[in-house]
Amino acid sequence: MIKHWIITVILLFNSTIVIGQTEIKIPEFNDDYSKTVQMLENGKTDIDYKTFRENFIKSNQFKIASEKSSEFRDLKKQMSRQMSESKYDSIISTTKKMLSIDYTSMTAHKVLRQTYKIVRDSINAEKYKTIQFGLLRSIVNNGDGESCENGWPVIQISEEYFILDMLGVELKTQSIDSGICDRMEVEDENGEMKVYYFELSNIFKGKEKLKEKKLAHD
Fold first, then answer.
1. 73, 74, 128, 156 - which has most CB atoms within 10 Å?
2. CA-based angle 188:189:192, to the nearest 5?
3. What sign does the CA torsion over 210, 213, 215, 218 have?
4. Rounded Cα–Cα distance for residues 89 and 16 (Å)
5. What are the φ/ψ torsions at residue 128 (nearest 5 degrees)?
6. To the nearest 5 percent, what fractions of the chain are helix, strand and coil?
7. 3-state secondary structure of 29
8. CB burial of residue 132 (10 Å; 0-12, 13-18, 19+)
9. Distance CA 2, CA 35 (A)
10. How far apart are CA 56 and CA 156, in angstroms?
């Protein structure tokens, strides 16, 4: 009898989450980025994630994400508060709002998949885990991060901090190397100092793209 009651409560809890969550808004542009977001949301996760991230810069959604950067930061703060309070339905809703702005956000994918795992939605947990690590590997598998020549290629500064967080290191100093790389001196959990490099050419392309769109609008 007790076992049956527990199962019923779990089912009701999960039903509440599904009802309360916000769906990810697919960008309404007929471009490769928007089409790929739709594919990923449909569960077709076997894609070229590096190309997907680069297509984000080319998409009009990149300009929208830039304009909504303050909103995105506020959502991220909300997410952190909701995580501390274990408000799982709110976390799912907030992370999906974040992904509606920027679907390349590894932070949002990570928290979303962890939350789905907690509420025992294994299908969605696996889907967003695949996407998160697909995005991550598209960076760290394209270079070793040990020199500027082999720096990890990023499209946004947030990707750098996400990777450093995944490595479990603390940033000590940050500087530009050769005009094309971020040089990050970090300290690991054992107190050992290390240096990682991130290649910035796509960040510069993104800034140029935003500048072009602004001039065209003006």
1. 128
2. 45
3. negative
4. 8
5. -75, -25
6. 65, 10, 25
7. coil
8. buried
9. 47
10. 11
Per-residue pLDDT of the chain (218 residues; tens, 9 = 90+): 444 443 333 333 443 334 444 799 999 999 999 999 999 999 999 999 999 999 999 999 999 999 999 999 999 999 999 999 999 999 999 999 999 999 999 999 999 999 999 999 999 999 999 999 999 999 999 999 999 999 999 999 999 999 999 999 999 999 999 889 999 999 999 999 999 999 999 999 998 888 876 666 65
Rounded CA separation 123/47 (Å): 18
Tokens of 147: 């020199």
The token pair that represents 109 in the structure block: 């994918």
